[in-house]
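Why should sequence recovery work at all? Because a backbone constrains its sequence more than one might expect. Tight turns favour small or flexible residues, buried strands favour hydrophobic ones, and helices have their own preferences. The token representation captures these environments compactly. In the example below, the structure is given first.
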């Protein structure tokens, strides 16, 4: 396959430096995915290939989050909720929309489930779940977790409590006070940490 081609980006030339770099990176990824899909078709194996597409985080530009608060780099909905696409022609012949929250942590358990593989000495619990029931139309909501999940990027934290924390499986708590600066412990942050 040839090198990545970004196409004509002349319309973005007036964009500031960091945004232009993002546009170029997105164009390169788009081009590379196109090349990969064409090659799989040429080899005749595209129908059994599972393609996952999603962003790593929310929108960068103001107003690009579809009305959600927050943006790339924080844990508000606009920073973490992104569309995802699964292309798998042999199993999903007709497009459909699912409202069940999913994340990239679900890819690994889904692939293990698909292949019927049980990994020896696999640490438990896995961060994700198998999405095969969702693909088969048998899942209408994400199952509740039995243990909490914690995210701590760049000085903020989020707790996805599941049953252990008393919340629903779809709840996400955004807080900068979960882990305060050293020496600045509050009763509120102590209560939150005790839920972990």
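From this structural description, the recovered sequence reads:
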């Amino acid at each position: 396959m040839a090198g990545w081609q970004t196409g004509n980006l002349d319309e973005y030339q007036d964009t500031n430096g960091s945004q232009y770099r993002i546009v170029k990176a997105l164009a390169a990824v788009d081009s590379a995915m196109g090349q990969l899909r064409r090659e799989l078709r040429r080899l005749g194996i595209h129908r059994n290939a599972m393609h996952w597409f999603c962003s790593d985080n929310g929108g960068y530009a103001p107003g690009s989050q579809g009305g959600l608060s927050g943006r790339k780099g924080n844990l508000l909905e606009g920073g973490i909720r992104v569309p995802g696409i699964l292309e798998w022609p042999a199993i999903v012949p007709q497009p459909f929309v699912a409202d069940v929250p999913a994340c990239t942590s679900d890819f690994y358990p889904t692939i293990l489930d698909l292949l019927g593989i049980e990994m020896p000495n696999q640490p438990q619990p896995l961060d994700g779940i198998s999405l095969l029931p969702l693909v088969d139309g048998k899942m209408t909501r994400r199952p509740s977790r039995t243990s909490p999940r914690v995210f701590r990027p760049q000085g903020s934290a989020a707790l996805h409590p599941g049953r252990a924390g008393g919340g629903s499986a779809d709840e996400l708590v955004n807080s900068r006070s979960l882990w305060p600066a050293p020496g600045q412990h509050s009763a509120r942050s102590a209560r939150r940490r005790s839920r972990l």
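A few observations help interpret the result. The radius of gyration is 20 Å.
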